[in-house]
């Protein structure tokens, strides 16, 4: 495959990528805000590699989609396929710190033993009700509808809890027909509900004071540092693309604040 994407906002070119519906929904939802390409170097727009035996190598494709608007500092999505081993969508939308907005985060991963589903409007400052209350009041009813229809995702590390809202949608879904049904009937509408609420919050947001902006910026930086340091995809990406490239990708693209 030869990647022909010229900027980050162009549609990804991976054929039969499992999570394409969700990225297309995101692009459509933000089209009203006149999005512009987020600056991403060509070496990160598209990257290919292979794994497995030399006689039967399997292809790895990673493409990065991204945008920015007047209120969104960076929206970016890492889209990866590695043969039949894994298919990944790692989407984070980061607002500018002069708006009282959460992060939008969706991490959908297919592994040999099932699908991992993580979806949230993540706070920059969890213990600050000015930052959280207006979001959680609207998000809690949405979460209660969809989480009850999904198998649980299991425990999350205690140090990670400060970076998730009480409305964190978290599930481990089996492969096969059962998982496909859950993705189609539960995950798709749940994603759209979370996304539509986030778009509503962005639309209605107003600029805040400089003092407040600095407080949010500190919270956003703390969140980004944690995500960069604890990124669970690090070892997989190193195996596919090497340590040096992976560290630059994680720190200068995925979590670049």
Question: Could you give a short description of this structure?
Answer:
The chain has 257 residues and is of the alpha+beta class.
Number of strands: 8
In percent, how much strand structure appears in the residues?
Answer: 15-25%
The arrangement of helices and strands along the chain is HEHEEEEEEHEHHHH
Gross morphology: globular
Feature tags:
8 strands; 7 helices; alpha+beta; 257 residues; eight-stranded antiparallel beta sheet; oxygen-dependent coproporphyrinogen oxidase
Chain-wise SSE layout:
Blueprint: H1 20-30, E1 36-37, H2 42-45, E2 46-51, E3 58-68, E4 72-82, E5 86-95, E6 103-111, E7 114-122, H3 129-147, E8 169-173, H4 176-204, H5 210-230, H6 234-241, H7 243-254
Antiparallel strand pairs: 1-3, 2-3, 3-4, 4-5, 5-6, 6-7, 7-8
Descriptive account of the structure:
With 257 residues, this protein is of the alpha+beta class. The chain has one domain: oxygen-dependent coproporphyrinogen oxidase. Helices cover 40% and strands 25% of the residues. It has seven helices and eight strands; from the N terminus they run αβαββββββαβαααα. The protein has helices spanning 20-30, 42-45, 129-147, 176-204, 210-230, 234-241, 243-254; strands at residues 36-37, 46-51, 58-68, 72-82, 86-95, 103-111, 114-122, 169-173. Strands 1, 2, 3, 4, 5, 6, 7 and 8 form an eight-stranded antiparallel sheet that branches. β2 (46-51) and β3 form a beta hairpin. α1 packs parallel to α4. It is globular. The protein starts with 19 loop residues before the first helix and ends with a helix.
